[in-house]
Specification:
globular, five-stranded antiparallel β-sheet, 219 residues, alpha+beta
Length: 219
């Protein structure tokens, strides 16, 4: 009888681990689809991986932001123990992946490098230089998703809160540096309620007269 009980407990434990794995995959897929949408994954690796790295941490999922080269191009992904999550793997034909890659690090495909401490600074510096503004669209949606999650669930980790606040402030500030027509186009991708939430959380940035006039004309 004791043996049966032990086996039942083991099966429950294994099932629980499998459920956690599937839940993580669901969270990742929902995040990527909600931020990237129909935008091409090319050159979007940091724009997705950095906020996803934070988002998973808010869910209690420990992970590391990792980088290296794939097919001779600099690339970012997330590492969880012995496995990785590569949300923009589909941009590389060599990886033969149609969507998000979950699995072991393929040492024949991923040339791992040491993460540069200024990676975030470099990303921020070039954030507004994308002609199609895709980087800002993705980053703004990711930041708003994080902000909405804070509003709904609350976080008890002040470091995470500060990281998210700084991230969204950087994205918001970069968006306000665009020409008027680009700001109109950028904010047309964001629902009114999310725009209102953004403005309420960042009143100093939102006091920008140009932004207020643009948003007024949008309605």
């Amino acid at each position: 009888m004791a043996g049966i009980d032990s086996y039942s407990w083991l099966r429950t434990f294994v099932d629980m681990l499998q459920n956690i794995d599937e839940e993580i995959k669901r969270i990742v897929r929902d995040f990527v689809h909600g931020t990237l949408g129909s935008i091409d994954t090319k050159c979007m690796c940091f724009n997705i991986c950095y906020p996803l790295h934070i988002y998973l941490k808010t869910k209690g999922v420990e992970n590391d932001l990792s980088c290296g080269e794939v097919s001779g191009r600099y690339h970012f992904w997330l590492t969880m123990g012995k496995e990785i999550i590569d949300p923009t793997a589909s941009q590389f034909s060599a990886l033969n992946c149609n969507e998000i890659y979950f699995g072991k690090l393929r040492v024949d495909k991923y040339d791992v490098k040491e993460l540069k401490p200024d990676s975030y600074v470099e990303w921020k510096k070039h954030l507004h230089k994308d002609d199609k503004r895709n980087a800002l669209i993705v980053s703004l949606k990711a930041g708003l998703l994080l902000l909405g999650d804070i509003q709904q669930n609350g976080y008890h980790d002040p470091e995470l809160q500060e990281t998210i606040s700084n991230y969204l402030s950087d994205v918001f500030t970069a968006s306000l540096g665009l020409p008027d027509i680009d700001i109109v186009n950028l904010f047309s991708t964001i629902p009114d309620k999310q725009v209102e939430l953004l403005i309420s959380c960042y009143p100093e940035e939102a006091s920008n007269e140009k932004l207020k006039a643009i948003l007024k004309n949008r309605k």
